[in-house]
Amino acid sequence: QVQLVESEGGLVQAGGSLTLSCAASGLTFRWYTMGWFRQPPGKEREFVAAINWSGSTLYADSVKGRFTISRENVKNTVHLQVASLKVDDTADYYCAAKRVATPTMTIEDYDYWGQGTQVTVSS
Predict the structure, then answer these.
(1) What pLDDT, in 10s, does the model give residues 31-40?
(2) d(CA 85, CA 114)
(3) Phi, psi of 74, deg, nearest 5
(4) Residue 51: exposed, middle, or buried by beta-carbon count in 10 A (0-12, 13-18, 19+)?
(5) Is there a contact between 94 and 21 (Cβ–Cβ < 8 Å)?
(6) Radius of gyration (Cα) for the chain, nearest Å?
(7) pLDDT tens-digit readout, 62-115
(8) Given 3-state DSSP classes, what are the helix, strand and coil percentages for the chain, each rounded to the nearest 5?
(9) Would you state the pLDDT for residue 100?
(10) What burial letters (b/e) apply to 94-122, b meaning 16+ CB within 10 Å?
(11) Closest by alpha carbon to 77, among 110, 114, 40?
């Protein structure tokens, strides 16, 4: 059974930073592209970043230069370092995994999802 478990988010002041982690189990981690998505209050879920087994990354324009995705294949873990946070970054953040090696932004491409973790940015 595949499980993706995100670390706890939290309340952060604007301009601050935070690292989210996602621990995967029940799958051969190195075969999967890992992604982060987020769902702001009252809005649709949207792509944030993705990374494949070799470290190729893809970012949403809204987070480029502020967020960094990385993975530790030995630990079956993917991280999302978020910096220079804005109030608009407030959302539930979700970890996702897909079998195909190419990072993509499409929600439907991802096979497995975590339960999500809440990040609130205060002004």
Answers:
(1) 999 999 999 9
(2) 22
(3) -65, -30
(4) buried
(5) no
(6) 13
(7) 999 999 999 999 999 999 999 999 999 999 999 999 998 899 999 999 999 999
(8) 10, 50, 40
(9) 85
(10) bbbbbeeeebbeeeebbebbbebbebebe
(11) 114
